[in-house]
Amino acid sequence: MQIEIRGVEKLSLRERQVVALKEMGYSNERVARRLGLSASTVATLFNRARNKGYQVVIVLPGDALNLFGPDDEEEQEK
């Protein structure tokens, strides 16, 4: 899985780190342990980043979702 954060230029480095981990599903506590912060600091950074406005796009290849079979690949090549 690959994520893209649009509007990242508005965020500080710490906000970017928190956003990336939070958007991947990590809890405040887990992000805090990983970054050496308190859970309340993580919550503050995440809320600050959300207020600045950003958009997360998740990029998944089609085959990761089992959407295409061998027959579909032949049709795409035509």
TrEMBL record:
Pfam families: Sigma70_r4_2 (PF08281). Gene3D superfamilies: Winged helix-like DNA-binding domain superfamily/Winged helix DNA-binding domain (1.10.10.10). One of its GO terms (molecular function) is DNA binding. It comes from the Bacteria. GO terms for biological process: DNA-templated transcription initiation. Residues 25-52 form the HTH luxR-type domain. This is Sigma-70 family RNA polymerase sigma factor. It comes from Desulfofundulus thermobenzoicus.
